[in-house]
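Entry 12.
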Amino acid sequence: MTSQDVDRPSHALAADLDRVLGDPGAGSGPFSFAETVAYEERDALPPGAVELLRSWGFARYLVPEAFGGGLRNLEQLFLLTRVLARRNLTVSVMFGSALLGVNPVWLWGDEEQRKRVAQGLLDGDLACFAVSEPDHGSDLGTNGTVAVPDGDGYLLTGEKWPVGNATRGRFVTVYANVEGIGSSLLLLDKTQLGQGSWEERPFVRTVGLRGHDLSGLSFRGTPVPGGCLLGRPGGGLAGILQVLQITRTAIGALSVGTMDSVLRIALRYARERVLYGEEIYRIPVIRRHLVGAHLDLLIAECTALPVTRALSVAPSRLSLWSSVVKYLVPTLGEEVVAEAGRVLGARSYLREEVASGVFQKLQRDHAIASIFEGTTHVNLHGIASQLPTVARIADRPARDGNTVLRDLFDDAREAPVWQPSGRALRLTNAAEDEITRGWEPAVARARLIAGRELPPAEAGALTKVLDRLSLLRGGFYARIAAGTLDATTAEAQDAAAEHCLYHAAASCLYTWLYSFEEERTAPAGTAWLVLVLQRLLSRLGQATEPDGELLGPVEELMLACLDGPEHFSLRAVRSACRPA
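Predicted 3D structure (tokens):
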């Protein structure tokens, strides 16, 4: 982070957290890789890690400002989580599970519920979201937990497993079938539950996230007080789908933080490891792995950050956009981890040596990102179910599209303060998709800029890649609009995945248009855009080699970030390109 972050409070806050947590490559400290790996071996968190975060005030950013906390918007929490995730995903997931557990309270809770939960979190309590059941998994339509009316309250019976923070959490949002009402969300406070009628199940041993509380809860006619319902009675399933829109977006921070760490570890190794008389970074295939990983990180950032702002700017779009982020960003993260592993070779398999052996932990931990909050297949199904509607008007500019896009993609602007309201979230986008629908006007504007401002070679490269993407994109949406798409088929999954790539390409283009107005004539100011669009073309099956003349400036910035104060990010690119 740099002094230029003062123009964005959220970035300045993340920079302060980064400073407090320290250099993870240092030899000691609760967030050092050395201690993280050492306690990972014991299925434990490093002593002092959670306490350090709490003393800094991390829990404040799980509680919206409206309820006495410090959370201004989801972008702010994304940036903080990225800082944390590049050091220890297990601790990040602990707080992420708490966020998932309390978001229903922020969206639908009454004044008393919000006050009690907010104060609990600020005092250091955790929360959990008790939805999954041993026999039903992600089949949310089947709910075996029942709540039977009993006087002014209910008797709750059922089993929830596996659940993050089920044991450590004080507050529990439970998905239960309420007799006479239907499936609903209930807020429980363990301090108000009588002993003997419920119990916590043992921690589950997991491949990654060792030390995380993944356990369960069993209820046996547990008396729960009246007034515990959250949201509309009988609206539990819809409520879950709406809550997940927020956390699916936030999960992108886990992936981007992981990408930053594994790229940093692999790049440092490639610059220090000498074989055949020179550093292995000079081996063309090694260089290709690392540069490609850096470009993927930029694509992930362009895709995820605007959707975090959508919670404050255009929350009704999150039903579609959150699933795009949840599918694409962890998928890119998995590929960046794999690329870094190829660079590290045998060292990627060691639990010691390079970066204290943390790579194998990062690799195992990140695998969860594609699984929870809906698996890859679940999210692609959600995208596919909306895709025909989106395709039919894909080339029809949205009303006020430019205003929405600038609010989402202009990095100079702080996202508006989030005002939590369950009414603002929708189960479908109803074709409100400015990111898809703004492509053609954005391309036309980019062509004008290229002709007026850019050197001929750079302008030609940008125009060429935009033309190729436009041709592919136009044919894709025309085919979807003209046909019938069954969201349950493998074909639909493939189509949804392809849509995500067009969404990402548009997000990269808008980021350049709205956030690089002063920087695009610098050596890397447009080169990064051409390179990420060329990479997306390759992902669409169009064999495309990165433009060699444009690669140099972006590569130099990547190498400068290795030992500098910046994360690998577009903010670093923008800072380097900013006119003196």
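Annotation: The mean pLDDT is 95. DSSP finds 20 helices and ten strands in the chain.
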